[in-house]
Write a structure and sequence with these properties.
alpha+beta, 2 domains, 6-stranded mixed sheet, 11 helices, 43% helix, elongated, binds zinc ion, metal-binding, Cas12f1-like_TNB, DNA-binding
Length: 414
């Protein structure tokens, strides 16, 4: 299995200059290779292979001062990157390659370069951990979480964010296989995602939506300031950076929340059931806020799926049709407009929070899909929780789990 580990670099001013210089040589090489690609196609009527263009690198170094300053494997990955982009393009355009559509990269659009297989290592220098990059520098790095000992580091990509910060992302391979999901999952959970509550699960935990209104307000304020600055001036550039920082801050907080929430479910349970958003998306009429929310759910589910695989937890995406309308206790469907927050079944009298009822339906469909013997005593019949713990986002973000002792127990109805 492959894992990605991302860390912040702490480059000095001299390091920054070198990083930028290498980045720009890579960018120029990218543009040059694109030029060669077009030239070759004009001459030969077909595209050159990646090997052909890579084999031109040694000759290039004879007349291109500076190219030799960059580690040779890094240069090779630049050529690979162009071919990757080409592949992506050909997938879009089934009728032949549209090379003409690959664009030259201005500095703002070329932010990273990659050491593959060799030329980099983590080291200790003068009491601090550094990322040692061949032909570049030893750059201090903040390892806020450890890389597992058995992780085999295959490559590292260093990237400059629009804020000016540099990050290093390691691609690591683990030799150990992920654990097989257990055949008889004992701890199972269904999760209903929503707009009012971010997630509502069958263990009676409701996680509130992330409140980023302060961060959003700040972003808007900085954007307004930017619009008053003269385009291209020093102040404009400074302000543009501030706006980029606001964006990065929002993004970081959102990801952090989703990482922690998905970690929690993947580690805590043997089976996790959610709704299949691909089906759900087609059923619901698109509206703007709905689409934004559904993009965030997608991210959440994809993190959850990958972490479940890592932990040996079953991940099931079930058909979402009617999960809200159906009674989790007897299966009878009743219409329920969005503003009705309570489920109250006219057929069997079962009452529950609307989202809890949906979560139970998601779980029982998930158990059916996996075909595990959980049905003897349906959880719905035996263990429906009567009330719900509402958990603040702060709790998830600070502790990484919504189930720590200090749950704020409060009934969920209003
Ligand atoms: Zn019922």
């Amino acid at each position: 299995m492959y894992y990605a580990y991302k860390y912040r670099l702490k480059p000095s001013d001299a390091h920054r200059e070198e990083l930028d210089r290498h980045r720009d040589i890579c960018r120029q090489l990218y543009n040059h290779t694109l030029y060669r690609l077009n030239e070759y196609q004009d001459e030969h009527g077909e595209l050159p292979s990646m090997t052909t263009l890579r084999s031109e690198l040694p000759d290039l170094k004879n007349w291109w001062d500076g190219l030799s300053d960059v580690y040779s494997k890094v240069l090779q990955t630049v050529v690979e990157r162009l071919f990757d982009n080409l592949k992506g393009l050909s997938k879009l355009k089934e009728n032949g390659y549209g090379v003409g559509q690959l664009k030259w990269k201005p500095p703002r659009e070329f932010r990273s370069f990659t050491y593959n297989q060799s030329g980099f290592k983590l080291d200790k220098k003068g009491g601090q951990t550094v990322l040692s990059l061949s032909k570049l520098a030893d750059i201090p790095i903040r390892l806020h979480r450890a890389i597992p000992d058995d992780a085999n580091l295959k490559q590292v990509t260093v990237k400059k964010e629009p804020t000016g910060e540099w990050f290093a992302t390691f691609g690591a391979q683990m030799d150990r296989e992920p654990p097989e999901p257990t055949e008889n999952p004992e701890k199972c959970v269904g999760i209903d995602v929503g707009i009012l509550k971010y997630a509502h699960d069958t263990d009676g935990t409701a996680v509130e939506s992330l409140d980023l209104s302060d961060e959003r307000e700040r972003l808007e304020r900085e954007q307004r300031k930017l619009s008053r600055k003269q385009h291209g001036s020093n102040n404009y550039e400074k302000q543009r950076r501030r706006v980029a920082e606001c964006h990065a801050d929002l993004r970081r907080k959102r990801r952090d929340f989703l990482h922690k929430l998905s970690n929690y479910y993947a580690r805590e349970y043997d089976l996790v059931a959610v709704e299949d958003l691909n089906v759900k998306g087609m059923m619901e009429s698109p509206s703007n806020s709905r689409n934004t929310a559904s993009a965030a759910w997608r991210t959440f589910f994809s993190l959850l799926e990958y972490k479940c695989e890592r932990e040996g937890t079953h991940f099931v995406a079930v058909n979402p049709r009617g999960t809200t309308k159906e009674c989790a206790s007897c299966g009878v469907s009743t219409e329920k407009p969005l503003w009705v927050r309570e489920h109250s079944c006219p057929a069997c009298g079962f009452e529950a929070d609307r989202d809890a009822n949906a979560a139970w339906n998601i779980l029982s469909r998930g158990l059916q899909d996996v075909g595990v013997g959980y049905s003897e005593s349906t959880p719905v019949e035996t263990a429906l929780p009567t009330d719900t713990d509402s958990v603040s986002v702060k709790r998830v973000v600070e502790t990484g789990s919504p189930t720590l002792k200090e749950r704020t127990a409060s009934a969920v109805s209003e």
